[in-house]
Amino acid sequence: MADRTPLVIDTDPGIDDALAILLALASPEVDLQLVTTVHGNVELAQVTENALRVLHLAGRSDVPVAAGAAGPLVHPLPERAGHVHGAAGLGGVELPPSPVPVDPRPAVVALAELLLAHEPGTVTVAPIGPLTNLALLLHVFPEAAARIGRVVWMGGSATRGGNVTAAAEFNAWADPEAAAAVLGSGLPVTMVGLDVTLPTVLTQAGIERFRGAGTVGAAAAGFLRQYVDAARDRYGIDGVCVHDALALTEAIVPGTLGTVRREVVVGTTLGAARGQTLVDRRTVAEHGVAVAETVDSEAAVEFLVSRVCSYGD
Ligand code: BDR
Ligand code: CA
């Protein structure tokens, strides 16, 4: 196999975040070298603890976890997403604690050091939460940020409206100023938004396949239960939208999703349009954000299920 792509996941676990981390670790195409955490679904201390525990579950406590921003760049969040992910972020499932402590470095320092240690253009960064850490990296270590090969972000929405407000997807809404900075930075960003994640539903049948696949699969089936309940209430579907895992699929196998380069503006006013990602679909923008517009949802779900099932015991 060709060289594995060095990968960093910036995350707020979060049920679909946990699944995304498990997917990356089960994928030989990528080499997960760092996990950075960010406020988002629940508080920073909790998502950091969750990231450590998910890595431990997968037997990969060797991957360092560095804690990042505890809140958005400018305006405090009015609410988080404990109602979707459970108060502690993993759907009420308590995974065994990791024997390894959190990395002492702030997330942006760990990320900058990793980027500076690799050839420019070789590292993929997959932020699957608010973009606060990446915006800070751009400001504090611009020379390191410029070395990122690809940013594959789960967030935003071009055609589907929002999921946290009528206009905004959660990760964009949770730090719109950061999203505006990153999407406008000129970095090679792929936006994996609700347009492709809402149709990509992991059904109960898929979750049942996890249950028969060893400790990791059983734990995943356990924390997905809460997500199924939230999805039923919110979208009336019997299954879950695996938002973050779909972004990771695109990070693992570039080209999984059909993307078109678009100009994207993020709403940063305090009104109803806060956090909206306004995607200009009238034209192709040569230097714009690669917006994921098409997906083979069935293939993406099968990819996820088969990879997570590959843990066995
Ligand atoms: C995004 O919001 C979070 O709740 C999920 O983890 C995902 O990253 C979906 O809008
Ligand atoms: Ca997330």
TrEMBL record:
Q: From what superkingdom does this record's organism come?
A: Bacteria
Q: Known Gene3D superfamilies for this protein?
A: Ribonucleoside hydrolase-like
Q: Which InterPro entries match?
A: Inosine/uridine_hydrolase_dom, IUNH, Ribo_hydro-like
Which UniProt keywords are given for this protein, alphabetically ordered? Glycosidase, Hydrolase
What is any one GO biological process for this UniProt entry? purine nucleoside catabolic process
Q: What GO cellular-component annotations does this UniProt entry give?
A: cytosol
Return the protein name. Answer: Pyrimidine-specific ribonucleoside hydrolase
Origin species, per record, is: Klenkia taihuensis
